[in-house]
């Protein structure tokens, strides 16, 4: 009996040692997994911005959101969060080890809605709202001046097998037609932004996007502006290359060449027609001026919507936005060209303008020039705000005010959505 007892005891000890070894190995696996998550290249503390200003009671007096560099940094981080929301979904990450939340939590925002593409179930956008409870825990009793109540952030193309097909489909849609209105994502983004603007007021809402997402943000923001709803818009590396634009440029050049040839062969009939046309134009102008003045006095559409564009000259996808509109240089306001909303005018006398920020770096690789990370970099010495109006911006925004003027007089004068 004693021998049997001894053997049993020895067996139990061996089992205990094996169990202890397993427990230790499991703990090592957990620790190793935790370290891998901490060292993930997309973790906020690894690739996020450095030396950020933490929100505290001082923001009640002097908000860091008033600083353009800080605002650009935060909004770019929100877009990065949308990329990571989709990656977290694809990689089945749980809330405790998800990467995305750390890209909005430090700024006292919270996720309230994700925008889903019904074609593949992917996340392409998100609504982030000011988190009052998180802010109050840091003694920030009110929302800092300049901080939006809600931000609609839209990601660009994600080259992952689960969503790549639909992303590229929309890329090709823009390439062919220079429009994204036929996409499912456009409808979802527009309805979401309208709802948020109605809930918080358009002045308290912001829409932002990167690459393909910037294309959606531009067209969604412009659609709301046509209805008199002006939402702050930030566009990072917006797409500017399209077949439709190339054909239009060819047509414009052909038309310009024909006009030059035609001007070299004057005729008597043309001179008579020109005189009559000048007289008619003067009469129409005298009749139209009071109506246009009434529109201006009612605060409609004179440079109210001024999108912010962030482009890199080494990025062939968005660099066309930096091409100056030289056709209107004589009418660009002369000495007032440095003013924010001054730019070439369309036929209705409405200013066409945008804030254009350009990075100029030599010998930069495309993935760096088109990447989102550059926009939260602390080195802003390469970032310059241009004082000329882009030819492409002028074309994009002229259609906004031209189409707006086609509405009924009551809708136009009130500046309200239809």
From TrEMBL:
Residues 326-347 are annotated as: Disordered. Residues 326-339 have a biased composition (Basic and acidic residues). Signal peptide: none annotated. InterPro entries: AB_hydrolase_fold. It comes from the Eukaryota. This is GDSL esterase/lipase.
